Amino acid sequence: MPDLASTRASAPTIWVAKANLLYLVTEKFANIDLHPEVVDNASMGLVFEELIRKFAEISNETAGEHFTPREVIRLMVNLLFIEDDDVLSPGNAVVRTIYDPTAGTGGMLSIAGEYLLEHNPQARLTMYGQELNDESYAICKADMLIKGQPVENIIAGNTLSDDGHGGRKFDYMLSNPPFGVEWKKVEKAVRDEHQSKGFDGRFGPGLPRVSDGSMLFLMHLLSKMRPAQDGGSRFGIVLNGSPLFTGGAGSGESEIRRYVLENDLVEAIVGLPTDMFYNTGIATYVWVLSNKKTDDRKGYVQLIDASSFWQKIRKSLGSKRKEMSDDHIATVTRLFGDFTEAECVSVCDAAGAQQGEPQLVTNTDTPPQAPEGGKTKRVPISRIFKNEEFGYTTVTVERPARDENGQIVLGQKGKQKGKPQPDSALRDTENVPLSDDIQAYFEREVLPHAPDAWIDEEKSKVGYEIPFSRQFYVFEPPRSLHAIDEELKTVSASIMKMLEELAE
User: Fold this and answer.
1) pLDDT over threshold 80, residue 42
2) Residue 59 has pLDDT above 80, yes or no
3) In this structure, which of 44, 191, 242, 274 has its CB flanked by the most CB atoms within 10 Å?
4) Neighbour-count burial of 107, counting CB atoms closer than 10 A to its CB (0-12 exposed, 13-18 middle, 19+ buried)
5) What are phi and psi of 87, to 5 degrees?
6) In angstroms, rounded to a whole number, what is the distance separating the alpha carbons of residues 347 and 461?
7) What is the pTM assigned to this prediction?
8) Rounded Cα distance, 197 and 202, in Å
9) 270 contacts: CB under 8 Å, gap ≥ 6
10) With bands split at pLDDT 50, 70 and 90, how would you rate the model's confidence at 104?
């Protein structure tokens, strides 16, 4: 019987050998003195992390593949564990599982394991993952081997078309799936599962448009959640802005949002700074979903705008120009853990100049006071909403067709006999918030402008969207025309004076 350790070790080696790189890699390492007396264990770990980052950056050639910055992973791991005191309390010999369906080089799994061991050395976190890219898969296997994890838990292949952990459920999950990437290659397999299995499969709520498959990974993770009666699950996933609002009522994206909100699965969404990733500068968001919400969170979603929580890095790495500091991560973690609303308050003097640094103020804090003649500027950072506040009903408003004499055209047959016939050119839609009565909204907003209109109730659809940026927009009234005019006069006078001095 072959030695188990050697069997595990051979897996990454096979992938390197297939790429005809085994000899070259071995030769390079053979020329370096890595004896424990020369390079201690801690330094070796740092070297290994740097190698993983370098290889990951090189392999990120496909659009949508993003090596996740370590500070983003640390934030996600903090959010994942912060509410689980039994897991983090030292001395509790708990055993938990964690899964990443887009494992890459295993960074998310590794940092989650390190975080848990740091807080509770007696805890054991068994890691599972799946990765499509062969190079990343080999590095991930090697990482798991060094950490003493069962390397057979890391599966090669496409998660969407060939689930390597079918039927298995997990306590925690993390993922940074490719976003903005079409899923045509696996479209047949995904649609077959959606149509044949429905909610018994992974894609029951609906299918997003083929041009972006990131929400397929969201549904995949939903299917891997441990039932609430068995302890439940929590997972974090990085998505771009599209899943928040793309697609109208009845579309695949809207139906997926409807499913997670109506089933009260979304705990929080955190907006990250731009220019955080190595090969994309777009805005990204961390979604935190759970089926074990605490009582105070039930029925609510917390939105945290951390887009201003960043500092410049010393040297740009591709598109990455910003990073979140430990203090930034701690602040977001605290806001999530306390489940509180918060504002960033700036104090300005009478002349409008900002005094000191902006101050983060929660519901229980006393906000700073403005000096005489000055004012405070308040920018929301954390807000809490009821799930239904993101829902709406799209109603179709019809108006009657008219003949050349201006008379309303009536139906001549069947159910339409004697009823006004709609004019498709005048057809319109209205999005009515779920909190509003549709008829009252119609009478208030539509009938005063179109007295002959009616609602075609058969076409009404319920939709959901999360307009993240809109919730944090703060209107700043423009300066008065008088103030602008006075400033122009002052500038003009200054220019004329300089011209006179030159003429002399």
Assistant:
1) no
2) no
3) 242
4) buried
5) -80, -40
6) 46
7) 0.85
8) 8
9) 75, 79, 285, 286, 288, 304, 306, 332, 336
10) confident
- Residues 498, 299: contact at Cβ < 8 Å? no
Q: What is the pLDDT of residue 61?
A: 46
Angle between helices 107-119 and 134-146 (to 10 degrees): 20
Tell me the mean pLDDT in the region 253-261.
Answer: 97
pLDDT above 70 as % of the chain? 90
Assigned token pair, 354: 């900002």
- In contact, 233 and 175? CB cutoff 8 Å: no
The tokens describing 156, both together, are 């090669």
Strands (E), 425-479: 428-433, 454-464
Q: Give residue-wise pLDDT tens across range 133-157.
A: 887 888 888 888 888 899 999 999 9
Q: Which two tokens stand for residue 97?
A: 């599982």
Nearest-10 crossing angle of helices 326-338, 70-81: 20
Helix (H) or strand (E) holding 380: strand 375-386
**Residue 490 burial (10 A CB sphere; 0-12, 13-18, 19+):** exposed
Residue keyed to tokens 């002052």 = 490
Helices (H), 252-297: 252-262
What pLDDT is attached to residue 49?
56
**DSSP track, 418-440:** TSBPB-GGG-EEEEEETTS-HHH
Joined tokens for residue 408: 């309303």
Residue 239 has a CB neighbour count (10 Å cut-off) of: 21
**Tokens 């339409």 sit on residue:** 416
